[in-house]
């Protein structure tokens, strides 16, 4: 019977030791759970800060996009005017080219008449010079 009492005592001591280690383990787990709670609170605060910053950034981005859109629309008129100015410049250049070509053709066509007029002018100047010479002598 003493063996039964000794066995029961050993089992009781083993259960007490087991309970002691279970309690120790549970206390460690409790510490870890508290740290996780603190960490999750810190992460939540950081996420709130980030959310606020992202919200501010989104509002700023939207304002910039609206401003850019407004400026882009105002520039459309300027680009349209520049396009029209370019087209007008092309028309003026074409007109000048046409006038230059016509003048060149007309000058070539009337070149013999101009040459003959210049010859008659030279002859007239020579005659006048000779007449002046005779008059002085």
From TrEMBL:
Domain of life the protein comes from: Bacteria
Chain segments annotated as transmembrane: 6-23
Keywords: Membrane, Transmembrane, Transmembrane helix
Pfam families xrefs: DUF948 (PF06103)
Gene3D superfamilies documented for this protein: Methyl-accepting chemotaxis protein (1.10.287.950)
Name assigned to this protein: Uncharacterized protein YoxC
Organism annotation: Geomicrobium sediminis
């Amino acid at each position: 019977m003493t063996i039964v009492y000794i066995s029961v005592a050993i089992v009781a001591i083993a259960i007490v030791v087991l309970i002691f280690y279970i309690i120790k383990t549970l206390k460690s787990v409790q510490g870890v759970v508290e740290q996780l709670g603190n960490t999750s609170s810190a992460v939540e605060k950081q996420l709130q800060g980030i959310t606020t910053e992202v919200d501010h950034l989104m509002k700023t981005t939207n304002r910039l996009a609206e401003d850019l859109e407004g400026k882009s629309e105002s520039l459309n008129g300027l680009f349209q005017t520049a396009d029209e100015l370019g087209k007008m410049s092309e028309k003026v250049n074409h007109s000048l080219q046409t006038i230059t070509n016509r003048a060149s053709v007309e000058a070539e066509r009337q070149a013999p008449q101009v040459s003959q007029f210049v010859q008659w002018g030279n002859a007239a100047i020579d005659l006048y010079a000779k007449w002046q010479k005779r008059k002085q002598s």
